[in-house]
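S.,

Sequence below, as promised.
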Amino acid sequence: QVQLVESGGGLVQAGGSLRLSCAASGRTSSSYALGWFRQAPGKEREFVAAIDWSGGRTYYADSVKGRFTISRDDARNTVYLQMNSLKPEDTAVYYCAARYGGGLDTSRLQYDYWGQGTQVTVSS
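The prediction came back faster than expected:
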């Protein structure tokens, strides 16, 4: 079992920045990929970014490419999502997720563990 706890959400003006953190605990010695997803009201949960078990490969949704950066610090069992140039359409609850096996995947169905989410609100 892996427990994931997100933090760092909040209210920010358009053009601003936030950094989300996701701390993992439990069975963290195994190789796993980490992803960030988001869900806006009335919409399905969508992929944002992912990083593989080594941290050497990352992948982003087109809507955030060039603005968001995912990274991981295995010494702290933490994954980060640096979000710059935020837009009102980035408003959503952001979730981190862990996937055993280490490979990147954009499908939420392929992730084994989820955090409780953190709200990000971008005002115009």
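The mean pLDDT is 94.

Coffee later?
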